[in-house]
Structure formats: C-alpha cells, structure tokens
Amino acid sequence: MCPVVGVIGGGQLARMMVPPALELGVEIRVLAEVEGASAALAATAIGDYTDAATVLAFARDVDVVTFDHEHVPQSVLGALVDAGHAVHPGPDALSVAQDKIVMRERLTAMGAPVPDWSVVHDAEGLAAFLDDHGGRAVVKTPRGGYDGKGVRVVSGSRDADDWLAAAGERGLLVEELVDFRRELAQLVARRPSGEVRAWPLVETVQRDGVCAEVFAPAPSAGSLPAEAGALAQRIATQLGVTGVLAVELFEATDGRLLVNELAMRPHNTGHWTIDGSITSQFEQHLRAVLDLPLGDPSPTAPWAIMVNILGGPTGATMPDRYPMALASHPGVKFHSYGKQSRPGRKVGHVTATGTDLDDTRAMARGAAQFFEP
Amino acid sequence: MCPVVGVIGGGQLARMMVPPALELGVEIRVLAEVEGASAALAATAIGDYTDAATVLAFARDVDVVTFDHEHVPQSVLGALVDAGHAVHPGPDALSVAQDKIVMRERLTAMGAPVPDWSVVHDAEGLAAFLDDHGGRAVVKTPRGGYDGKGVRVVSGSRDADDWLAAAGERGLLVEELVDFRRELAQLVARRPSGEVRAWPLVETVQRDGVCAEVFAPAPSAGSLPAEAGALAQRIATQLGVTGVLAVELFEATDGRLLVNELAMRPHNTGHWTIDGSITSQFEQHLRAVLDLPLGDPSPTAPWAIMVNILGGPTGATMPDRYPMALASHPGVKFHSYGKQSRPGRKVGHVTATGTDLDDTRAMARGAAQFFEP
Fold this sequence. Notes:
The structure is a homodimer. The first copy, chain A, is an alpha+beta fold. Helices cover about 30% and strands about 25% of the residues of chain A. Chain A folds into 3 domains: about 5-85, 3-Layer(aba) Sandwich (Rossmann fold), CATH 3.40.50; about 115-175, Dna Ligase, domain 1, CATH 3.30.1490.20; about 180-370, ATP-grasp fold, B domain (D-amino Acid Aminotransferase, Chain A, domain 1, 2-Layer Sandwich). In chain A, strands 9, 10, 11, 12, 13, 14, 15, 16 and 17 form a 9-stranded antiparallel β-sheet that branches. In chain A, helix 1 crosses helix 10 (about 280-290), helix 2 (about 50-60) crosses helix 3 and helix 4 crosses helix 5 (about 100-110). Chain A is globular, with a radius of gyration of 20 Å. Chains A and B meet through helix 1, helix 11 and strand 16 of A and helix 1, helix 11 and strand 16 of B.
C-alpha cells in the first residue's frame, strides 16, 4: 500500500516535500490556501486551514496530517485528533511552537538554556525589565511572528505601547537582548516511536530578521555540536515533537548556548540538506510523520553553503536569469519556489557543496548574485 | 517566466523528471497513457500518443516537447514540428533510436564501432550470416523492442521464421553474438546550442534482458572511459541528439568497445545519478531540452551502485516493506515508482553510495533483498 501524507499549507516547505514523496513512492496531498501556491502541483484542495470542516474533509483520505507552517488553530488540531486522525507534530507539541510565552515556559521548566525573559503587561513592567537588563530588551508578540515580524528591540518603557495595547491580558514576551557571537541552528527529526536523528549543527546569518545564509557544518564550533545535538534531542523528546524540529540558537559572547526559537517543521536552516545530506530534512520529515525508520543525516560533502534568494522590485523570477547563472555555476544547485516575486519575499535558494569553506562560500554567493533584486 | 516542459508518456522516467522540475522551478506537464500512471502527479492530459490531434492539443501551451519513451510515431513528431513546436530530441535523431536497422546504418556510416550486422529477409539470408559467424547470431526486430523483447539468440536458419514472416519487406536485423567481458553504458546530455556533458562510464549487469545492477563508475576500466566518452559525444553531435543520450556498449573479450543500443532519453543505467551525481540525468535532460546551460555531472561519492527492483507475484509494493528495509539500511536511497506490481515489471530501484566498492555493493544488494519477489 502507498501511504498518503496530507500537508496543510501550500508554501515552499510543502513544495519541497514533493520530490522525496515521489522518490519514496509516498502519496502527498496538499491543502493550499490559494490557487497557484508554491506546492500547487500536489494540491488536492484549496481552502482555509482555520476552518475545521475544511481541514476535516481534507484529512478524510490521508494516513497522516502534517504541516507547512505552525498556524493551524488548536481547535482545528483538536478536531482532527478527536476524529481519529494521526497528526504529526501533534497539538501538544505544536502549542509550544505557536506561542512564544508557552515556549519560554516549557523550555525553562525543562532546564533548557534560554535568554532571561519575562511576561510584561504594561510600560511599568517593561521599565522594570529594562532596568534589570542594561536598558535594552527584545519584545515579542506571543503569536503570529515569523521572519522578524512580531519582534522589536526596545530601549524605552513606552517603545511597545502599541503592541501592549493590542496584547490584552496575555501580555508580551520580553527577553534580554543577547550579545551573541553568531546564530546557530540544530535540526533533528523524531518519529512517534521515539527514534531521533540529528543533522550537523549549522551557522546561520540573518539579515533584517530573515535567514540569509547557512553554513553547514558550523565552522570552528568546538564542543557546541555535541551540546546542541543533545539539547535538541532532549527538547524533541520531552515536548513529544514528531517530524523535524529546528532549534534556533545563540552562541552568546559570554559562551552560553541559548535557545532562541523552535520550529516544528522543515526549516530554512535545513534547506542545504537537499543537496548536502544523505537524507534531506524533507525526506526525513515524511519518514518521521509516517513513523518509518529515519534515514542517515550525514553530510555528503565537507561543506554545504546555502544562500537565500529574495524577490525584488522588478518581479523577475529566478528562471529569467538561468541562462547566465547556470552557465557560470554548473556545480551549484538552484531552487526556485515557483512563487510570484515580491520585494523581500523568499523565492528560492542556491546551495553549493565543496571541500574548502572559502571556495564553497564564494561559489554559493557568486551564484546567488545573479538573482539579486 | 517559468518555462514549461511537456513530456509525452507517463512512465517512471517522466515521474523522475518531476523532482528536478520542482527544484528548478520549471513547470512540467505530462501526457499520460492512462489514469494512475507513474507520473500521474504531473499529468495534465490522458491520451493516445500516436494520435496527432491529441499530441498537438497537449503541446499547445508548452515551451518544449520531450519524451518518456521513443515510441511516438514520426508522423506525429512531424506534425509537432510543422506546427512550430520545439521538440527535443527531434524527429531526425529519434528516427535512429526508433529503428535498429537505421541505427546500425547510421552508426556504421559515421565509423562508430558496432557488432557485425546485416539485414535478413529469409531463412537463406539468416543461414548465410550464421555460416559467417560461427553458427550463432542475434536477431532483432527493427522496432518496438525494449528490456530484451524483440531480441532472440538463434543458432538455426529457421529459428526466426515467425519473426521473418511478420517482418515483411523491412526484414530483420541480424548481428554477431558478441562474446563480451561485460556491458557498459555511457550517458551524455547535449543541448541544442551544442554543449555536451558526460557522466562517468558505468558497468551494467543485465538479467533476462533487463538491467539489474549498475556500477558507477565502471571498475577497472583503464582507457575505456575516455574512449566511450568521446564516442558518445561524437554520436550525440553527429546525430543531433538533444537531451540525454544513452549509449549501451559491449566490452568484447577481444578488446573491442562496441555500440549495442542507443536510447534518447533518461535511461535506467543513469538512475544512480539522482543520488550519486551533482546533476542527475533527469535534471540534465530538463536543462538540455530547454537549451539551458548544463550542470556538472561529477559524481558525489567514489562509488554509486544501483539495483533495480522488479515486481513479484504477490503484488507487494516497495512501501509495504519499508519498515524493515529502511531500518536496516539508513544510508540507502529508496525509489518506488508508484506502479502496480507485476512479475518482472520495473517498480523501483535502490542506490547506495560509498568509498569502498565491495561495501557499497553489499549495501545496495542488501537493501534490494527486502523487495525480492
């Protein structure tokens, strides 16, 4: 029998699950938000993922439900579970990824290293936190943020008045502004029966809150990979995550390894695995949510460098520039998400692999330059 | 703009073009023979590829027409070209792959090394050829053969009477029975503007006329790779092949390198490239037929071994056996074509990569054993 995976959400993460589904002979069906979504090829339904009836109808003929994003409401997730559907990751785990306050509470409860944090409800609370943390802090809305949205650096107690007014009783998360050497990401996959596999720790470079580049493995990381791998495995297991878990980390200047964010799905910092690992994060996610044995996540080359491609004002697509880009970089892998180009929107990525870090980085950046807005 | 490739035929070769199409952001549409074909996910039409009106309607909105097989009639190919469609490979090149007598004529005319051959119309002609070649020969129907079908070893002049009666004026191809050390395959890709790229020469093992295993690169090949690469490049260029060209070769015991067959499409002997080469044959075929710059065909590991999976009498599919197979071989890549299992039918393949030939072969064969009929 051919297992059927249903993916809620039709973005590029769902799109990138399609190749390994075809390879493994797993059927994949997507509930997309709109016609012409990035994952349109596999879309069998178009509808609103916040509507329980829509999602239940989509789930009727699939063996497992999984996600392109973390925004499906708990009420809808609960309806799926109540109707007897396998849902991976499950509602409990997803609740931690959906709410940054819950995330901080749970991570703190399990003793995972996180930045100092608090929940504030008014300017006085924020003022107190600022006083205790050198006059600067990061304020985050508990829900709905991504790619830097819903995150603000503040230095005055009135700098978050608008968000505080909108936040209501729930309040806002406020965190110490971590002075970090660099950002890292540790991805693991876990299947319901408990097996966990970890990819190498990677270094990520963010620009304007958006992932710009990923270096796999993280250069000169010393004992950090062992520490991060054990930490991510513990988080995945204790939160009961199924599928891919991305743990975004700070390497602080004072030496601390701190958890910044969690994502419970394939993640931008794992796109390099398509071309640089024996088992990509997308194949591993499919295996994990189907509770199949996980694949070997070992890298296939000493270095893999991924550079994101963002849309620009001209609306040019990546394929428009393929004649020049492919000719000058025959060894680079080009990924275009089939999305309309808009300024700042992630429309694709390139990955280079090689044996020398500097050469590989130059190759990836050189290829990406052809697509600069 | 997103280029659109139209593929005639919905088999596993069309299916395996879908992942690189998604990655590159190239739209792929398939004209499948039936519902539920291997490439059903990308099928936008179901119809008869021998019907010009069906094929012309399919081709209307694509930028280039290419193929899952070589069986589209010349009349239909001609109609496509007359209507102004880009067709790759083109009708002239395909005519050579469609007819084994034409193939022998053209290869002989260009001085490519081939087994001794002749065209026979009757038992007397066959008797004369047998007399000249030690009493044994291979008889082939000019058209329609694949996977050992349409090929017969004969040792008596009446052994092909049935085929001769059916062959009519065209006659049959008769060839020397080559005493070979092993079979090899050289794949290249060529784009219309002339660029050619070659993968490493591989060794292929056939069982009952069907490809069973492929070793990439061909072990202990001495100067053969250079010879085969130059030969395939010459054939591709002189025949004007566009897309992937597979040159199946004999390494004869007397040292000759002889062309056995040609295929003008991705080929079973190139499936290892999906997991073992920077640019797979399927991605390269898409690039080539779109006249985009070709990718680097270098291998990503010292050895890649592919083992075909054939269907058995139980009708079990590969995914039925994934729980055991994936657990015991986490580093092997599993490919299932989503086809109904029938005895002897190609339903999938596995590929292992590694640094030691024996270990890699053992790994691929061990993984394949889980799917033995």
